[in-house]
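Lab notebook, bench 4. The sequencing result for the construct came back, and we need a structural model before the next group meeting so we can plan mutations. Quick request posted to the team channel:

Model the 3D structure of this chain.
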Amino acid sequence: MKYKGKYLANVAIDFEVTVNDRMRPFDEMKQLFEHELTPGLEWVIREEFLSGVTATLQVVQMQAELWKEGE
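Done. Here's the predicted structure in token form:
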């Protein structure tokens, strides 16, 4: 089984990961992916690329989907 997903803002992330026993449950991952990725992404960009720089940053989530494949 695999989890597949797509996150679309001004950045698009398409991914595929094979499920293993160290992963969080699907419902928890789906919640994080669909509702917590945007603020996390903003934080990473600010810390890694804008630290010490006066800048405006806005990440607008346009789409977030996570689904199971190959059950």
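Residues 2-69 form one domain.
Will bring this to the meeting.
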